[in-house]
Amino acid sequence: MKAAFIERYGGPEVLQYGDLPDPVAAPGEVVVDVHAASVNGADWKVRVGQYKQTKFPFALGRDFSGVVSAVGASVDDLKAGDAVFGVLEAGQEGAYAEKVAVKAAIVANKPDALPHVDAAALALTGLTAMSAIEDTLKLKPGETILIQGGAGGVAGFAIQLAKHLGARVITTTSAANRDYVRGLGADEIIDYNATDFTEVVTGCDAVFDTVGGDVAARSFAVLRPGGRAAFIASGAQAPKADRDDVTSLRPPVGRARRPLERIAQLYQSGAVRPPAVKLYRLSEAADAHRLSVSRHFRGKLVFQVR
Ligand SMILES: NC(=O)c1ccc[n+]([C@@H]2O[C@H](COP(=O)([O-])OP(=O)(O)OC[C@H]3O[C@@H](n4cnc5c(N)ncnc54)[C@H](OP(=O)(O)O)[C@@H]3O)[C@@H](O)[C@H]2O)c1
């Protein structure tokens, strides 16, 4: 099969396009013929060696959408020809490829109306946003949340989900993406290049930070006493709050069929629509990574594989 893979850690130039062996479905697994796979911030962190793998070469990539082409022993709930989407097991890479083997229990049926490109774009972003907004922050109707980095993939899902739950949403973005985040439902938009969010936002019930660094560290300032903040761009641990009357949380982002089915339901009900997508071929993986590392684009970067 064709894949975008690396044989050593390094910059975007280490990404190669070429042949890797076809995967085989082990017991409990399916092989999926990948139609689309998305780029996540984690992918370039894997590429530079922040998450060590043991065996080169390997294809990068975590979420995918495609069609089941082989079924391993003891899989009785999926069959060849089923359209599915999902996210590889934590620590497993490999979705930038024409085929991927994955545990059947962590993929879900893709709604017919949802294109593969959009399903791949919604998979890991959806799992992450739902974990943060619903399971970790436990956002309630009528609450106000500041979502940092509104034009990104995870934040775009989070804005829509928070609105669906009945919350008021403030978000930060560059001026170029103001209309985009307004279209996702944001009530108040702060151009982070023009305005310091700590000077105009106060008394929030919750913060969801997808930017990290200094933005994460300063986010505690906008919380009311008793408020909570969730962080996904500050490493494996939540940053320590600089005040003792708020809670700092790191959402766990698991892999399972049920939350993928919830993504499908949110899409089918119209509560969440797919992000803006920029399409690439697998042979253009280095270009996609250069843009991903820049962290200034809108929505998701997605490989159209078939
Ligand atoms: N399982 C997990 O824990 C998990 C899962 C997924 C993602 N993540 C992490 O979550 C983070 C977000 O990922 P992502 O894919 O949604 O987005 P991303 O690709 O990391 O970020 C892109 C977005 O960030 C915005 N942005 C950049 N600097 C900003 C700033 N100072 N203030 C506000 N917005 C800013 C950009 O908007 P502008 O162009 O308007 O600047 C752009 O739309 C990454 O660090 C990623 O590794 C973690």
Describe the structure.
It is a single chain. By secondary structure, the chain is an alpha/beta fold. Helix content is 26%, strand content 28%. The protein has eight helices and 16 strands. It has helices spanning 41-48, 116-136, 153-164, 178-184, 197-200, 213-218, 257-268, 285-294, and strands at 2-6, 16-19, 29-38, 58-59, 63-71, 83-87, 99-103, 107-109, 144-148, 168-173, 188-191, 204-209, 223-231, 247-249, 277-280, 300-304. Strands 3, 5, 6, 7, 8, 15 and 16 form a seven-stranded mixed beta sheet that branches. A six-stranded parallel beta sheet has the order 11-10-9-12-13-14, covered by helices on one side. A three-stranded antiparallel beta sheet has the order 2-1-4, with no helix packed on it. Strand 9 (144-148), helix 3 (153-164) and strand 10 (168-173) form a beta-alpha-beta unit. Helix 2 packs across helix 3 (153-164) and helix 2 crosses helix 7. The radius of gyration is 19 Å and the shape is globular. The model has no long low-confidence stretch (mean pLDDT 97). Residues 40-42, 124, 128, 148-149, 151-155, 172-174, 177, 192, 210-212, 215, 232-233, 253, 292, 295-298 line the site of NADP nicotinamide-adenine-dinucleotide phosphate.
